[in-house]
Amino acid sequence: MHKAIRYGAMPALLLCFSFATASQADPGVPVVEVQAAATGRDQKSYRDMVAGMQVFEQQRALAPGAALRFKVLPRQAGVAMDGLALQLAGEHTQLPIALAADHTFVLPMDAGAAGDNASVRSNRKEKSLAWRADIRSPGLPQDTRRLGDLLLECKVAMAADLLAYVHHPINMLVVKLADPCSSLPINLFYFADRPLFSITLIDGQRRSVLPAAMLHGTDSPLMASHEDWPYLRDRVYTVKFKLLYGKGWSDDTLLRFDYMDDDLATTAQAVQP
C-alpha cells in the first residue's frame, strides 16, 4: 500500500519554529558576488548570526565534532534557487559568501563587518528564503538526525533570529529567555530532506515511533504570512525537546526517517515483471 501524507492535528501554540537538515558543503563551489541593493532584498543581521555562532561555541558539547553551517531554502512557490548568491555587506563591507550546491554556507568572522552593522544579503527579494542553522555530527547513519544536534540548532537559531515565528509580543519575549528550547513545551518545526512518512526514535535498544501528529505541521497555520514552513510541509516534523528529554531520551538519540519515495521505489520494484 502506498503511504499517504498525513497532516496531523497539533495544539495551536503561538510559537512556530522551523529548521532544516543539510549535508556537508562542496568545497569547490564558486563564489558569486551579490550586486543587488539591500533594499527589498532577503537578508539577515550579521551581528545576530555571529551571536548564534557564539552560542554554538559555548554549547558545542551537545554536538561533539560537528561544524556549524547555515542553510537557505525556498520559502514559497516560484522562488528560484538557481543563481542564488549571498554577500556579507554593509556601508564599508563587501564580502562574497561561497554557497554550496545544497545551499549551505559557512559565515566568516569579521570584526569590521560586525561594527559596520552589516547583513548577509541575497539576490532574492524579501521573504523569498527560509534561513536556518545546520549542525550535523559526523558518522551518522544514512537518513538520520541526532537529537543533540537538533537541540543545538534550536539554541543557535534563537540567538541568530533564524526562526519562523509569529511576531507576537509573547513570542518576542520567549525568544529572549535563557533557554526556551529546553525549558518550554513549544512546537519546533524542522525540515527533512524529502517528504516524510514516519520517524522512529532510536536510543540504544530503545525504540519509539514519533506520533503522526508530529509530522507535516498544523492543519491551520496561525499566521501563514509570518511562517515559512507551510510551503514544504510534506517535509516538516516537530521536536519537543522538553518532552523527549523529560522521558529520558539522550543527546545521542537518532531520529530515523522513513520517506514517502522509499515506499514508492519499493512498490515499483515489486510490480516489475
From TrEMBL:
In terms of superkingdom, the source organism counts as Bacteria
Any idea which UniProt keywords this protein has?
Answer: Signal
Give the residue range of the signal peptide. 1-22
Report what the protein is called. Uncharacterized protein
- Write down the species: Janthinobacterium psychrotolerans
Classification of source organism: Bacteria, Pseudomonadati, Pseudomonadota, Betaproteobacteria, Burkholderiales
